[in-house]
Design goal:
The protein contains 16 helices and 3 strands. By secondary structure, it is mainly α.
Length: about 375
């Protein structure tokens, strides 16, 4: 594959110059329409296609149908959709008809022009020379994403490519993913936590709710998705547990509530999650928006970000509370198996990573054992300091 032009095997013709029936017409039809691509597809059985006739937008539908049939969650499906979208952008960058055509894509007022262009590539585009290395280079140097994000997109690409291999559309080959090390997170400090936990007025619902959520985060380490799905009847105050029905590992969990969070949740529910007769509203979101409706994940992230800034805390990540929870747990000597269960990880791999980062108080050990602390400082009289 020369830069920008995909070459077909055993031919000197550029890939996009091959006469593929209906391709140019379809490009024009798609670019001239604002309707979603998926809604206009007439599905056919996969056996009617080969790698030159199957376009990527059709392949995406086949793949997503298969994933949905396996019972994968809507969040997994959304992840694969993001991976397809990233591939479409890559195709538009790497496989333009010529430089002028790519410049048209860049200059286009149509926001989805590059997606539409990439989506009508034949599935054979996955067989371009050095596809993985080119895709990795583009993610890191053009998109400028970190190594962890590169690995995330490659896991999606691998599933997509293996599905194409399974159907016989592209040749079999092994795809290896180099897992990048996670960055060390700058967790919330004691000073920042104290600012965030200063109780606001109960009359200001949004501020008060966010204060309760931050207390809850520091008590459980739950993910954002788990929190927005919580309902009032998930809490068992009598036993001191909460039922977390949505976790990334797809396994519901019954997690303990530490004593300090119980009165906070009881007060909050009494003020905002009971009816006129003071009975708890059942089956409603535990932490709704100010209209009483279920919050979205992005809505909760934005709300916590605003809350943190209002308290003079520049760290705004809600997920960082989860890292802070894990860090404090490990530093205080908590065992990894219990941490794995509470955080809802399907394996010990991630909690072992937390352990590698936070297992000992390195600062204290450095003060005690670093060679410089055992060495006497000489007077330095031989050399004179310039004044």
């Amino acid at each position: 594959c020369e830069r920008g032009i995909l070459m077909q095997k055993d031919t000197k013709k550029p890939f996009m110059s091959l006469e593929i029936e209906g391709l140019e017409k379809e490009i024009q039809e798609i670019n001239s329409s604002s309707a979603p691509i998926k809604g206009r597809i007439k599905r056919k059985t996969t056996s009617l296609y080969d790698k030159m006739s199957l376009r990527f937008y059709q392949f995406e539908n086949f793949f997503l149908d298969e994933q949905e049939g396996k019972g994968n969650s809507k969040f997994t499906l959304e992840y694969y959709k993001r991976c397809f979208k990233k591939l479409y952008y890559f195709f538009a960058f790497e496989v333009p008809i010529d430089e002028s055509e790519y410049q048209k894509l860049l200059d286009s007022d149509e926001p989805d022009s590059k997606i539409k262009y990439g989506s009508i590539m034949p599935i054979a585009v996955l067989e371009m020379d050095n596809f993985e290395s080119k895709f990795r280079y583009w993610l890191k140097e053009v998109e400028q994403v970190n190594e962890q994000t590169v690995s995330s997109y490659f896991r999606g690409y691998r599933a997509i490519a293996y599905y194409a291999m399974e159907k016989g559309w592209i040749d079999n080959h092994k795809i290896t993913i180099s897992e990048g090390e996670a960055d060390i997170k700058n967790c919330y400090t004691d000073t920042e936590i104290n600012r965030l936990l200063k109780k606001p007025s109960e009359d200001d619902y949004t501020q008060y709710r966010n204060w309760v959520i931050i207390n809850y985060l520091l008590a459980t380490g739950n993910r954002v998705g788990s929190i927005v799905d919580l309902k009032t009847n998930d809490i068992d105050f009598e036993e001191g547990y909460i039922n977390v029905n949505r976790q990334k590992n797809k396994k519901p969990a019954r997690l303990p509530l530490v004593k300090k969070i119980i009165p906070i949740l009881k007060e909050y529910i009494e003020f905002y999650r009971t009816d006129d007769e003071r009975y708890i509203l059942l089956g409603v979101p535990l932490f709704p928006n100010r209209f009483g409706e279920k919050m979205t994940e992005n809505g909760l992230k934005k709300s916590i970000s605003d809350y943190n800034k209002s308290r003079g805390v520049q760290k705004t990540s809600i997920h960082l509370f989860r890292h802070t929870f894990a860090k404090r747990w490990i530093i205080d000597g908590g065992d990894l198996f219990s941490l794995q269960k509470i955080l809802g990880h399907s394996s010990l791999k991630m909690v072992q990573h937390y352990s590698n980062l936070y297992s000992t108080d390195v600062k204290k050990m450095a003060e005690q054992h670093a060679p410089i602390t055992k060495t006497k400082t000489r007077s330095g009289m031989t050399m004179q300091r310039r004044k």
